[in-house]
# Entry
Amino acid sequence: MKSLRVISLHFWLPALVGVTFILSILIVIFNARQILESELTNRSIQFINIDLNALVQDMERELSFGNDNDANRALSIRGINTEYETLVAVDKQGRVQFTTHKIWLGQLAEAAIPHFDSNRFRETLEEREPDFLVSDDRRIITAYFPITLERHPDELRPLHVGALFLVYDLGYAMDAIWMEIWQSVEIPLLVGLLGFILLIAFLRSYATRPLRHLLSVTQRLAEGELGIESKLSGTGVLAELGKSFNSMSRQLKENVEVLRRSEQRQQEIIWGTNVGTWEWNIQTGETIINDRWAEIIGYTLEELTPMDFDTWLALAHPDDLKRSNEQLKRHLSRELDYYKTETRFRHKNGDWVWVLDRGKVIEWIEDDKPLRMSGTRADISERKWAEEISVLENKVLEMLIGTSSMTEILDSINLGVEKIITGLFSSILLLDSDGTHLKYGSAPSLPSDYNQAVDGIEIGPNVGSCGTAAYFNKQVIVSDIAKDPLWANYRDLAQMHGLGACWSTPIRKSHDIVIGTFAIYSPVPKVPTQNMFELIDRMTNMVAVTIERKRAEKEIARFSRIFEDSLNEIYLFDIDSLKFVQANSAAQHNLGFSMEELQEMTPVDIKPEFTPESFAELLVPLRKGKKEIIVFETIHQRKDSSIYDVEVHLQLLKLDNEELFVAIILDITNKKKQEATLNQAQKMEAVGQLTGGIAHDFNNLLSIISGNLRFLRQDIGETSEDIDELFEDATSAVDDGAELTQRLLGFSRTRLLYPEYKNVNDTIEKSARFLSRTLADNTELETVLPDEALFINVDPSQLENALLNLSINARDAMVQGGTITISAERYYHGDGDEYSLSLPEGDYVKISVSDTGSGISPENLQHLFEPFYTTKEVGKGSGLGLSMVFGFTQQSKGSCHIDSTPGEGTTVSMYFPEVADNRNIGQKPEDEEELFLRGSEVILVVEDEPRVRRVALRDLRKLGYQTLEVENADMAKTIIESGEPVDLLFSDVLMPGEMDGHMLAVWTRENYPQIKILLTSGYSKGKTEVREDKAHPFPLLRKPYSSKNLARQIKTVLMNVS
Amino acid sequence: MHNHDMYREDRPTFLVPRHIVACLVVVLGILTACSQPPEPPLRIGTSFWPGYEPLHLAKSLDLYDDYRVKLIELVNASDVLHAMRTRNLEGAVLTLDEALTLIQDGIDLRVILVMDVSNGGDVLLAKPEIKTLAGLRGKRVAVEYTAVGAILLDAALEAAGLTVADIEVVACTVDRHEDCYSSANAVVTFEPVRTRLLNQGARLLFDSSQIPGRIVDVLVVHAEITETHPESLQYLLGGYFQALEHLQHQPDDAARRMAVRLGITAAEVLASYDGISLPGLSGNKTLFADGPESLQTTVADLAHYMLEKKLLSEVISVENFIDGSFLAD
# Structure
């Protein structure tokens, strides 16, 4: 349709009217002026003609009478006329004769007077006719009138003819004309202008303004102000236009509302399905997408606009393009009804996003050429993600069922994870058994240097992501390794291997116990998405399942091995039929039955002591749950009918809803033997305790006898030799009795060690004398002793006891008889530890007991020092001898060694540290010593046994000491507290009452540290702590004590500056 | 941008745009201006007297535009008076007594400027053989029948102790003074005839310097002109004072310009002003102000004198005769 060109009425209509009006006025003015000017000119010429003719007559008359002055007057009076600009009379020579302006008088007119034209002047003189000329601009009229200036005196004929020259100024008249014209047009002009204004007002009010209003509402409508209505009312085209507009606006609003609702519904559907939409012009490539389309891949719509097909291609995953292009091609060729493809698109953050594109050509050109295609796009990342995770999980589960190793499965998990989250690496570290170090589990894609570096790393509160995650048992997300304090110590390591982020999750088995970490590494700083968290969770679970399963399998295998390889017989038998279900190889081997045979048998078949009924009765508590385990001893019968002692541990086990009896059988043949040994030892222990008790009382009796014998001897004084001999025999018998009690106590292993400086040779000789009486006749005892005295600080009675034990062992080893050699020698123990003695370097005294017996096999040698070990028949020895020897040497800071050659004999050597010679102390002259031992200090004697107390008191008083006596600790305490001066407390240890001697000693030391303390005891069973309490070591005088011993100990304690 | 807000209905609307109204006002103004006619030119009548020449000097100096001030050169004072009576002139340069004569004739005039004060310019010249004023007894004395002539003759006779009866008075218009001198024994005249006659040997017996302030030339206009042509009058006086200044400061150039009209040499032009004083703006202001020397006094005295001498036939009112309002700075 041809366009209908329009112009701005607002401007052009008034302009047109105005111009027309002004032009009309101008034409009127112009015409009027033409007419008026023409008339003016004519009238002016008429006037000039009349006036100048009159002047000519006046002047000619005056001149003819010679009245030049009057002629001049007549001319000058004409000058009053305003229009007469110039009026002069010029003679024929052209000089001014008369003038209105005196200044020109007598001058040449042509030179002096403006507008004067000599030619016209000449013509006027010649033609004798007035000459008028109107100037071109009609401003002036110039006129020349012939005038007779002089006549012949006698005749009328002129003698001198000149001319009047007039310049008539039309300016005044012209101005008057203009004035007239203006006055005549003034009213029409005013009326016209008023009309013009009214026209404009009218136009504005009823044309322009409504049109503007329509424009305004149209624009507002165009800008979206739907439903806006014009306010035009009245009649005419504009009013109709307004109504039409209103109707159109309403209709448009309704339509838009319908459209909007439709779009909203569509948007809601799109929003609800969370799909993006697109439209593609196949011919131009122009592509329109919506917000959601862009949002799916992390962009805003603005960022992707303008969109074209190339942008589309650039964002798509190159691997998926071929497939999607094929789909597209098939759809465009109408092979497929619609286009549908799943492709990956590059997310703004660099990840790949799976999308499902569906589309359809919605417009075709000429039926075979697609024009426009539109479709939707859905984000199926989560679905794909879930699918991939499921695939991976299934694969892992398959591997778990199969024979894959844990490492293979973990590697598969890592590689699978890395395939899902392209560009990231995953790693699994396993916590070691002590729960403090992480070991390499699997990280196939991480640099091996890195894996080695973190292998065995100790977990802690800030040990990277994994060490920390394992330490706190919580997930640790480090999105930027370079900045995170947790990585402070490992930053360089990570950066060296191009690692920017690490998210580590603890792998937990049941009860939330950490068994490792599952970590995802990113080469660049990165925060995990929600999907990744889910993946991590699921994969962590898979890893946990894998580890637990594989560890369980390992344990099952291990238990299976244990079951199979156990030397104990283990049986599983059915709860109902009681038939064996399984029996380990030890059972099969021991019984001599095959598994097949056993599966047809019941426990009763191998337990001859049981009948089916008694066995069933035995099982009742287990079946009823009253007991968890039943242990009993019985005998098993082999296939060959031989029997052996067994201890049966029977349990009812539930395994996978199946109840089974489990019997673990211990072969107690050896145990039975050991029990016999133990019984022996217990018997000996009982004997020992009994002996100890007797020895104690016996000791006290001996003390009394010994003391009284000494007093008796002193009281009797010098007597006969016979009496002396009687006394000596009695005293000697008492001493022997005391020695015997010591041995008894040593045998009962209840005595304490009382080390003394002893010459080894003396002790050996003494023992040898004693031993020679106890050895069999076919056994010789030899001693090989050095010439020099060798001193050691050991308990001499224990040493004797040891020698006794060893000698008895030697004797027992020589049933056929032989020689026992006891020897002593100095031994230097150097760097080399020849016999594994575990001794510090230094001088030792080596005491050996050798026999020429059968010797000991090497297998038995290593058990020799074990308690209850004996090669003797039951009843012949306690098996405690060598262990006592071993304990004694160890206790004495020495050692012990056995050297034996089967068939040649055995040598047992004891090593004791050698000490300096102190024989001088022990060999003081008797008188000198007696003087030395005397004293005058106050000694408080505490002894419950009155006889013992009296002996002690008498000894002490004889030495010059002052004495106080009480019979128990409480009384002693009272005396000490009473302020009675006491220099030394001499107390028995074992006393009736709440406080014993030791407690008294402790109390005294704490409260009265100036009081010296000496304890005495004859029996210390159960009170070993007295000496072992290092905080309160008190000197102790063993009962029975001699006067000299008492005196020496008292003196020693008193002189000792504590 | 759609500035549809401009067309909101709630906005007050001017039905006619302001600029159109403004244009119309201007057009109407122009029309009104055109319909008011400009002041018609002032026609000022002059006669031949050096005291009046500064007006022509102003014309010569192009200080007057013909459309505003047109100097009408008439042959003698009688023509000027006639033209004033017939109202063919808006104003004229006259002697004060001539102006009073016009008032007596019922012409309402206003004196707006004192052109000159005769201070020896008006003279009584006698033939050389008459050596004293007394020698005039019985002689023919030509005099213009004007107040100036009468005043000077009267003063001269008074000085000689004579009366009019002692002499024979011959009437003589100004354009015939030289002729009258020839035919009579003495003549009362003024410049430029004065100089010419003195050059011919005439004897000066009496001049106006002996009656100071008595003979004054003034510029008068019809009373209504002061109201219809105020601007033109100011224009007229402004040009006049400029010409006076030119005469004062460049007398040679002024004299050369004036010599053509006066028909005498430039030197004679300047000499002719010996007997005339030309009051400038300040001089005029003094004269128009109140005071013993004031123009008002002079007018009153002259009127009284003229009545006494029968130069006026009746008492005239000169109450509003003087108008100094155009003597702008």
